[in-house]
Amino acid sequence: VQLVESGGGLVQPGGSLRLSCAASGFTFSSYAMSWFRQAPGKERGLVATISSAGGSTFYADSVKGRFTISRDNAKNTLYLQMNSLKPEDTAVYSCKAGGVRVGPLTRDYWGQGTQVTVSS
To answer: Which residues, other chains included, contact 34 with Cβ-Cβ below 8 Å and sequence gap of 6+?
Structure first.
């Protein structure tokens, strides 16, 4: 199982970024996926979750109305569109596949993370 994030970078306040998470090694379309973030000195927190088929989503209050989670099951890719970015959105963003069953094992898998910095 491999999750590889991309799309992070430096952006000015009010700007936009789109993060991607390319998945491989498991049946991507069978699992809910999530984005988490961790700012320096803070615990990792949930940003957004999307159901396996993409019909249901959940957002943290801090990003509701600004961020959109989506997925393309044909491309095995998860996305996070981030608009109206604020300095407090600065963090390492990671994608997570939860409860993935591979052979006899069931566990969560994480990507390596991508840095998002919002600063003027």
So the answer is: 46, 47, 48, 49, 50, 95, 96, 98
